[in-house]
Amino acid sequence: MNYNILDYGAVGDGMTVNTSAIQKAIDECTANGGGKVIIPTGRFLSGTIMLKSNVNMYLEAGAELISSLDPADMIDFMKDFDDDNKDTGWAGGCFLLARHAENITISGEGRIDGRGREVFYEDDADGGSHESPLKVRGFRPRMSFLEDIKNLTVRDVTFYDAAFWTLHMAGCRDVLIENIRIENNDRGPNNDGIDPDCCQNVIIRGCRIACADDCIVVKTTAPMTEKYGPCCNILISGCILYSHSSALKIGTETWGDIHHITMSDCIMENCTRGIGIWSRDGGRIHDIMIHHISGNTLRYKDRAKQDSEVVVWWGKGDPVFLTATKRAGVERLPGVIEDITLDHIRMDCEGTIMIAGEEYSLIKNVTISDSTFTWKKQGTTFPDCFDEQPSARGVYKHETPCIYIRNGENISLEDKVVLRVEASLKEYIQERIINE
Fold first, then answer.
1. How large is the average pLDDT for residues 328-334?
2. Which residues contact 49 (CB under 8 A, 6 or more apart)?
3. Where are the extended beta strands (E) located within 132-214?
4. Integer Cα distance of 114 and 163 in angstroms
5. Which residue among 52, 54, 185, 299 is least enclosed by CB atoms within 10 Å?
């Protein structure tokens, strides 16, 4: 059965808050055994929408579902969660919320608008180059939080201008994300694309993602690990990714194990990092296969003014970045990174291929094969440092070799790995491998 929100009193003028009308349609749909809740053509402003079992929220072509930025309209869904990593941003509310449900779908040709443009602002902290992270003001809810959903599908819709994480799935099982578009501000802090957090059996395919923060990032946050365990059995393929951070990433939050992840057949465009694996919080990361990836990485300008909110981008044009080290000021040991294979990678880049562990946390059994990396000038700054944020090492001056290995065991380059430095970076990139 279809449930059109207009029949429940919704007004598509972009100004009327339609939370109650939309929720009534969803509640009646699930109470009657399920069906399709239709968001028709129009601009529908709303506070938190609670999605429920057996409901397909369908946005027709020309439909816009617009997030309120008024805290009074939002459910503070994580007020009882405890996490010592402030970067996760558990405080505050979210726009699309679902918890402990099954058979939920978000679909259609319409658009979901997070209004990030109203919380990000320019202060010309990078001298007018307009490359550095923007400043943030006011309340900014994440676009979604979908917890413990079995059989979740998100298909065809466009997520636009998220103020915080866009599609956050926590503890979900049997997930299909396909053919969606994420169009976020390319300088907006914390506007990640897709975050599978302690999820299992996930397929992400055919998506176009543009954002300032990480495009697709697999992680195990502290509160979700305690509730749902590891993140595993994830297939990511056929996506086009643009980011001022990492295109494909595992971590930084790694409280639980992450394993059996395949990333393939993706194109990366103008990212500060291509492929990144961070171990910081104790989980074991293993059996990761990454293949047939192409694109480019470059370095963007950072903020010239230091502040407590956002200072620099993470990444300096690194095509591949594997790191296991402690967080700054934390005695907790990171976990293990091992059994990683990368093949058929074609990247133009400006930064180092970094595989950097510690004596207390070696990186083991990494193979790169059938790949070509070309160092060429693309951005507005030159290589002169390493970036291991977030960690006690942070950002520090260092000569920039093609490959840097620290505390690695059984790291191998096999079968036609080509490292090529063009004239534009000959003065800045050392054509060698440093193994410490």
1. 94
2. 19, 22, 23, 26, 57, 65, 95, 96, 97
3. 135-136, 142-155, 158-160, 167-170, 173-178, 181-183, 194-197, 200-205, 208-211
4. 6
5. 54
Predicted local confidence at residue 126, as pLDDT: 82
State the pLDDT at residue 36. 98
Decide if 345 contacts 358 (C-beta within 8 A).
no
* pLDDT per residue as tens digits for the range 15-29: 999 999 999 999 999
The one-letter amino acid code at 424 reads S
pLDDT surpasses 80 at 87: no
The encoded tokens of residue 89 equal 């941003």
Q: Give the torsion sign (CA, 412, 237, 259, 351).
A: positive
- b/e per residue, 173-209, with b = 16+ CB within 10 A? bbbebbebebbbbbbbbbbbbbbbbbbbebbbbbbbb
pLDDT grade for 52, boundaries at 50, 70 and 90: very high
